[in-house]
Structures are given as structure tokens and as C-alpha cells.
Amino acid sequence: MYEPIRTKSVHTTAGTPSGFPHRSREEELDIQLAGHLAALLAVTDEIRAIEPSADLDAAAERLAGQVARLREGVAPVRASSAAAAREPHVVALHERAHALAGRALVVAASRADTAVAILAAERMDAHAPAAEPRALAAR
To answer: CA-based angle 28:124:33, to the nearest 5?
Structure first.
């Protein structure tokens, strides 16, 4: 009644090697975590340019070290002080840093990276008080 299929279907993917490389879940999480930490480092550098402090300097170095570790030794790009002059609103920068640290914490917890999770939680704690005035004013 029906003739059997003699050729492979174009939709069949099982057993055929693909032409592009695949990354594991761990590699994808490393890439995502490195991106969040690099963004947090950029905001930290902007805040440091506006209001320098030893705490921010130490945090920036730790963030840069973790990004380099996740990127297999490739150092992250650092923000210059000229970039901070465009956005002088420090509270908004602290809010952005707090949100980025939260995202990094979620990914670090997902991949069980304790060192990054601790660093992200510390950064959330450090940026939370600076972001509170706007939250209190909104109430």
C-alpha cells in the first residue's frame, strides 16, 4: 500500500554530526556569568571615577580576576573615567550594580561557583544602601 522511505529525511538529526560546535551547559553558564561580572565591573569603574574608595578599588580587582578566570585568562575591558562623566547620577549606577550583582549571584548559584556567589552577594550588600534613597522616595 505505501512505499517505504528510501532516503533519509531532511528533518532527521539523530546520529548525524552537525557542522557547528556545541557548548556544554557549564560552558554556557561560564559565558553568561563572565558577561554579568564584566558588566558589574564596568559599572563599578564608573562609580569609582565619580566617588573613589578603597572598597570599590578592591571589588574591581576581584571582579576583574574572576572575569579573567572565567574567560580562561583573557582580561576584561575596563571603563575609563571619561565614560563616567556622561552619567553622573550615582544612585542609578548603584541600582544598576545591585541588579547586575543579583544576576551574577543567580548564575553563580546555578553553576555552584562559591567564590563568585560570595563576591556577588558582597557587591549586592555594598550597593544596596546607596540605592535605598530612591526606593524610599518612591513610597
So the answer is: 10
Q: What is the DSSP string of 54-82?
A: HHHHHHHHHHHHHHHHHTTTPPPP---HH
pLDDT at residue 72, rounded to an integer: 87
pLDDT of residue 137: 55
Sign of CA dihedral 62, 116, 37, 103: negative
Residue at grid coordinates 553553576:
111
Residue 121 CB neighbour total at 10 angstroms: 16
- What pLDDT is attached to residue 76? 84
The secondary structure element, H or E, covering residue 28 is: helix 25-50
Cα–chain-centroid distance for residue 98?
Answer: 12
Q: How many CA atoms lie within 13 A of 120 on its CB side?
A: 26
Average pLDDT of adjacent 10-residue blocks, the chain of 139 residues: 68 60 86 94 91 92 94 80 59 92 95 94 91 56
Query: Dmax over Cα atoms in the chain, in whole Å?
Result: 81
Dihedral over alpha carbons 103, 109, 113, 114 (to 10 degrees): 100
